[in-house]
Amino acid sequence: MTAGPQTDIDAGAGPGSYHVALDHAGRAEYLHQSRQVEQETVAADRDEWIAAWQRIAGIERYLVRIWPAT
Q1: Is the Cα torsion angle 30, 35, 36, 38 positive or negative in sign?
Q2: pTM exceeds 0.70 for this model
C-alpha cells in the first residue's frame, strides 16, 4: 500500500456496480495522542502548534478496497 493521497485510481472498464470495503487502524492511538497535543499546545505559538500536530500525522490510517460487483 502506498502512503498518502491516491488520485489516479483506475475504476476498471467503466460504469457498473462496485463493492467498497473500508478499514482503519490507529484510531485509538490517534485519539490519545491528539488529547496530549491539545494539552501541550494551549499556550503554543503558531509554529509550535503546527509542529505538534504534524508529529502525530499518519498515526490513523485507512484502507479503501474497491472491486467490480460481478
Answers
A1: positive
A2: no
